[in-house]
From TrEMBL:
Lineage top rank: taxon: Eukaryota
Bias (Polar residues) ranges: 531-544
PANTHER family, alphabetized: GPI TRANSAMIDASE COMPONENT PIG-T, GPI TRANSAMIDASE COMPONENT PIG-T-RELATED
Region ranges (Disordered): 512-544
Pfam families xref list: Gpi16 (PF04113)
Protein known as: GPI transamidase component PIG-T
Length: 544
């Protein structure tokens, strides 16, 4: 077994700093489990030294060949930050797995099992990635590793949940999968108070098979804003300023502990401490054989100045990605709408993009309304290779794949009418008035090599959408519940009193007539006066 840890830090042109942690564990000479052996209980016990045992048991239990899980929060700004080190930056939770099997039912059963197992392992709501969110795209997610040749077909299962948020309860079990936990090595920098204060943060788990063995890669990506946490308004950063921690010692079981800092392209700056190696515009540090505390950072002598893009003053910054995308769901009503996508080609050459849309069944596409315009000119020839899987209400989402061609330095507009489903009142979430989160769309450039073959570039995720469905007046069910409870309480109270209380007839003497009561009162007063006069006479006679 082999364990390596690596940290890449880069200063962005808007003053922010991106950090990418990578913890890789290689289980040498290991292969995924053959799914045909799942029917037998002869799987040998797995004994690992560095490989995470809890994860290995899940992989063996469900015969997973390749798996990718990400939990992200925030919007990745491709135009300003460029491509991330790890391409899976879609908001919320995303899970996909390659599994071999002789039947679709067995693959679906194992897919359900691995979802629930990962939900318990990472304390995340991955159990909600049920069949209503599961798709099988054909082209957008090729296997990143190798697939064993067992004579069985491999199937892809993919699901995403834009409403899932990453928090401390996900980070804690994530760190427990590391050999040194967060006690030493680069993992000591993963301070939850600073991680979840970042402008963008995400964690990922990637399992794939290579000829040398099974590889597990745990990664953490962060985007900090030093200008926000700096009192001087400077973009200076260091381990202590970003994470409030230093690397006191390396992980003793790690074969390598490396840190790379991408050097800025212009300006005056200072990187400290002195890098051990500078290669390809990056400063490299090896923390393995050093026992001193490391606090790597970069300093600038002047304050950061935001670049103002104005046609009369300066030219805009060159794009960091070959294309830009904007995605919206238009329409004022709650039963109809229009999906609108605007793509801008930032380069002179023609660009082909693989477009993937996975939409829950609550939003249904009308393919006959697809319209494609290039610079406001209708161009239906710019869309091809359309693949569409119809949604099934309460059972399956829609999957739409196509290839879009973007001419050089042009703007392409894609639009399609959609219908919004009318749900039962029991199917709405607790915050029904907020709306439903729709998963992001995925665009992948198609690169043609010299021999004519096509390869996929880095994926680009759009932000998620919020759809407003027809929502019932939930105050009416509340009123019905209150009225019903009142009636039931009245009936129950009456019946309870009849069954438990003992009723006794009490006879009350009638009051005398008013005249008779007045005469009796006067008679009592006369008797009182006569008694008083007799007592006075008796006392006088005694004195004489």
């Amino acid at each position: 077994e082999k364990f390596e840890e690596y940290l890449s830090i880069k200063s962005l042109r808007d003053g922010r700093v991106t950090s990418s942690f990578s913890f890789t564990t290689l289980l040498r000479d290991a292969i995924p489990r053959d799914p045909r052996t799942l029917a037998f209980d002869d799987d040998t016990s797995q004994h690992y030294t560095l490989f995470p045992l809890s994860l290995g048991q899940i992989l063996r239990q469900y015969a997973i060949t390749e798996m990718h899980l990400t939990l992200n929060a925030g919007k990745w700004n491709y135009d300003t930050w460029g491509y991330p080190d790890e391409p899976d930056v879609g908001v919320g939770a995303e899970l996909r797995a390659w599994m071999a099997g002789d039947s679709i039912s067995s693959i679906d059963e194992r897919w359900q099992g691995v979802r629930n197992a990962l939900a318990g392992l990472f304390c995340a709501s991955l159990g909600s990635l049920d069949e209503q969110r599961t798709t099988s795209p054909r082209l957008s997610f090729p296997p990143e590793g190798a697939l064993p040749d067992w004579g069985l077909p491999h199937e892809l299962r993919h699901a995403s949940h834009a409403s899932e948020h990453v928090c401390t309860e996900n980070l804690t079990p994530f760190l427990k999968l590391l050999p040194c936990k967060s006690l030493s090595g680069l993992a000591t920098l993963l301070n939850p108070h600073r991680i979840f204060d970042a402008d963008w943060h995400g964690i990922g788990l990637h399992v794939l098979w290579r000829p040398e063995g099974v590889e597990v890669r745990l990664n953490v990506q962060l985007v900090f804003d030093p200008l926000r946490i700096s009192a001087q308004g400077k973009q200076d950063w260091s381990f202590h300023s970003l994470f409030d921690r230093k690397v006191e010692k390396a992980c003793p079981v790690a074969s390598s502990t490396r840190v790379s800092v991408e050097l800025p392209n212009s300006g005056v700056y200072r990187v400290y401490p002195e890098p051990q190696e500078i290669r390809d515009g990056k400063a490299y540090y090896n923390l393995k054989n050093n026992n001193e505390a490391w606090n790597i950072g970069t300093m600038w002598p002047t304050d950061f100045e935001y670049r103002i893009c104005h046609a009369a003053l300066s030219s805009p910054d060159p794009a960091l990605v070959p294309f830009s995308v904007t995605r919206n769901l238009l329409g004022p009503t709650q039963d109809r709408g229009q999906l609108s996508i605007v793509l801008t080609n930032n380069q002179q050459d023609t660009l082909q993009l693989l477009y993937l849309e996975t939409m829950p069944w609550i939003v249904q596409f009308y393919l006959h309304t697809i319209r494609v315009h290039s610079d406001n000119v209708p161009r239906d020839d710019l869309i091809s290779n359309i693949s569409y899987v119809l949604p099934v209400p309460h059972a399956r989402p829609a999957t739409f794949e196509s290839v879009l061609t973007l001419p050089g330095r042009s703007t392409l507009t894609f639009s399609m009418d959609v219908a919004k489903a009318f749900l039962r009142y029991t199917e709405h979430p607790p915050d029904a008035q907020r709306g439903w989160d729709l998963p992001p769309a995925i665009f992948t450039p198609l690169n043609q090599s010299l021999n004519g073959s096509m390869s996929l570039g880095s994926r680009v995720y759009t932000p998620s959408l919020l759809v407003d469905l027809a929502t019932p007046d939930f105050s009416m069910p509340y009123n019905v519940i209150i009225f019903t409870c009142s009636v039931m309480a009245f009936i129950f109270g009456s019946v309870f009193n009849v069954l438990t209380r003992k009723f006794i007839v009490v006879r009350v003497r009638p009051d005398p007539p008013r005249n008779q009561s007045v005469s009796r009162t006067e008679k009592r007063l006369e008797d009182t006066d006569s008694d008083t006069s007799n007592e006075l006479n008796t006392s006088k006679s005694g004195v004489h």
